[in-house]
Design brief:
The chain is mainly α. It has one domain.
């Protein structure tokens, strides 16, 4: 059987005798590493932006609902209204809906973060 003939350029590159091949390999590796670093920076920026939007939305909803919650709490504790009255029931439904939306948002963000980490 005849032995396979080794590639002369490959042997020279592996032995360090071919500086151009080493330079090309270094440049390819450097480009790959820089591209990966850029993608990581973009992903981190996107995560921070999304977290900021979520926090801003949550604070906006809290800001909008705080006067209504305050009014209902004031009516319940100071004016002697019962919890089964229409305003108190409406407010409890709104708070329940708000809590459900917030919980769903948290679940969505956690699953998305897990999916992003698996893709990276």
């Amino acid at each position: 059987m005849s032995e396979p003939v080794p590639d002369r350029k490959l042997v020279e590159a592996l032995s360090g005798l071919h500086a151009d091949a080493d330079l090309a390999l270094v440049q390819r590796t450097r480009r790959a590493v820089m591209e990966a670093a850029h993608q990581m920076r973009v992903a981190e920026t996107r995560r921070r932006r999304q977290a900021g939007i979520v926090i801003l939305t949550f604070l906006g909803l809290v800001l909008l609902l705080t006067p209504a919650v305050w009014t209902i709490a004031d009516d319940l504790f100071n004016n002697g209204e019962h919890f089964q009255d229409a305003p108190a029931m409406t407010m409890s439904l709104i708070v329940t809906l708000f809590s459900t939306i917030f919980a769903a948002l948290i679940v969505y963000l956690r699953t998305r973060r897990t999916r992003d980490e698996e893709e990276s």
